[in-house]
Design goal:
This protein has twelve helices and nine strands. It has about 300 residues and is α/β, with parallel strands linked by helices.
Length: about 300
């Protein structure tokens, strides 16, 4: 126990009325080094205002941003075996799970919900990268499959937001088996005649990019997102060649025909709704009526011009 740090300093701070400053009060832009106030960043949906850099986003924040009026119905988390391999590295896998559940308030990396985007009913399935790097394990695989089943039962499209480092090594072959299982779920949705849209976020790599993340009817991506299977350094060491600048970014993949669109985060709800209306052959929403003062001014303008 450090007597000065644990006793003397808190005592002095309480006497002087000093407050502890939260560690995340200011966020540093990874591209420019600009410091941004956390509340301003949150209001801008975690996009750095000056540089446009898209920061990672929690599942809850993404769902609130996507759904109309931030209202949605969460789908239940599946109950699956915990630590089936009794895995241990620097700590027990069971302890690691409990630590991340306490830290994030989530059961696992996948959060699924049902609601509407610009009036179109959807099921959204979101990876939360803060839970063990968004890695794909038994619980995540089962949650994804149940989300597809919910979309089929509700007869509505599914929108996937992957953000993952790949399969969860602590679950070994059981984690890898989620790749074919989720692929079958994608095929079930397509056989039901329902659209499947994938929004690739930073990062989407490993087994996730080798399965359901690359099987959408349309692939959108956020600007600057890292998308690929193996990391750049691993590929360079394997092929013994230098990779091009910007390799595995969403812009590079768009240029080479691997994805369909790069869409700014602010425009995602409108873009997704527009695509789904085309797929589902729905009528475009009626234009909003002009406010009364504007309408009156428009009527008076020709009369004044005639005088």
């Amino acid at each position: 126990m450090n007597w000065i740090t644990n006793y003397v300093r808190p005592k002095i701070n309480s006497m002087l009325g000093r407050r502890e400053v939260p560690e995340n009060l200011w966020i540093k832009c990874p591209e420019t080094g600009e410091m941004v106030f956390h509340n301003d960043l949150e209001e801008n949906h975690f996009v750095i205002p000056a540089s446009g850099y898209h920061m990672k986003m929690s599942a809850e924040a993404r769902l609130k941003h996507m759904f109309d009026d931030s209202k949605y119905e969460l789908l239940p988390s599946p109950k699956v075996p915990q630590d089936p391999l009794k895995f241990r590295d620097t700590k027990k896998y069971g302890d690691r799970l409990r630590e991340h559940r306490t830290k994030t308030g989530l059961e696992d990396t996948i959060v699924s919900a049902h609601g509407t985007v610009r009036g179109v009913k959807i099921v959204a399935c979101v990876h939360d990268f803060s839970f063990i790097g968004g890695s794909l394990g038994i619980a995540a695989g089962e949650a994804i499959i149940q989300a597809f089943e919910a979309a089929i039962a509700r007869k509505c499209p599914l929108v996937m937001f992957p953000a993952s480092g790949g399969a969860r090594m602590q679950e070994g072959i059981l984690s890898l088996m989620q790749l074919p299982r989720t692929t079958v779920a994608v095929e079930m949705l397509k056989e039901a005649g329902l659209p499947y849209i994938v929004v690739l976020t930073n990062p989407t790599t490993g087994g996730v990019s080798a399965s359901y993340a690359m099987l959408g009817d349309v692939h959108l991506a956020e600007p600057g997102a890292e998308i690929g299977f193996a990391g750049k350094r691993v590929i360079e060491q394997t092929i013994r060649e230098k990779l091009p600048e910007g390799f595995q970014t969403s812009e590079y993949l768009l240029e080479h025909g691997m994805i369909d669109m790069v869409v700014h985060r602010h425009d995602l709800p409108e873009t997704i709704a527009r695509l789904l209306r085309i797929f589902l052959k729905l009528d475009a929403p009626a234009p909003a009526a002009l406010p009364a003062p504007v309408a009156e001014a428009a009527e008076e303008a020709p009369a004044e011009a005639a005088e």
